[in-house]
Amino acid sequence: MMISIRRGQPEDAPKLFMLASQYQTGREPITRDEFTITLDNILRYREQETNVLFIAEIEGEVVGYSLMTVSRLLHAPGLTAHLQEIVVDKESRKQGIGDRLMAANEHYCMGRGVRQLSAVTSHIGSFYNHRGFEPIGQHYRKVLEIG
Predict the structure, then answer these.
(1) DSSP annotation of 68
(2) Other beta carbons less than 10 A from residue 108's beta carbon
(3) How many CA atoms lie within 13 A of 140 on its CB side?
(4) CATH of the structural domain 3-119, one choice from 3.20.20.30, 3.40.630.30, 3.30.70.20, 3.30.450.20
(5) Taking Cα atoms as reference points, which of 97, 115, 10, 113 lies closest to residue 53?
(6) Considering only 17-26, 125-134, 135-144, which range has the smallest mean pLDDT?
(7) Are the C-beta atoms of residues 16 and 62 closer than 8 Å to each other?
(8) Which of 60, 102, 104, 109 is the most exposed place for a label (fewest CB within 10 A)?
(9) 3-class secondary-structure state, position 23
């Protein structure tokens, strides 16, 4: 089994929407229209790139993705990256796909001079601990009403 990692493209939208639906964290799932707008924004070229979308494939089939943002923080020197999402299809887990996505993100960060990579999780902390991440602080979220 060969896992390949590449950058996301617009034609990945149907499979990415299915995978993103598996990742739901809010009160309601993202709609197809909202997803399309978001993906378009993520894939837009920017001089100072902030969104990095990696796709994992096995034999040409999209089986996972990761979304990372790269930015500067006022309290930390240099560039910082935050792994926003990492999703592997339920049927394809435990095959090293998450490891390959993490390696791609770390390689990208090292090439850009990123000095810190962070991630927030509520249910797969061991995935990150195994890869050298240390738990620091707490993560809070408030879902806001629109309108």
Answers:
(1) E
(2) 19
(3) 3
(4) 3.40.630.30
(5) 10
(6) 135-144
(7) yes
(8) 60
(9) coil
- Whole-angstrom distance, CA of residue 38 vs CA of residue 21: 14
Check residue 145 and report its DSSP letter: P
pLDDT for the residue 75: 84
Residues in the chain: 147
Summarize pLDDT for 15-64 with one digit per residue, the tens. Answer: 999 999 887 766 788 899 999 999 999 998 777 778 999 999 999 999 99
Token duo for residue 120: 């927030």
Q: Count other C-beta atoms under 10 Å from residue 97's C-beta.
A: 24
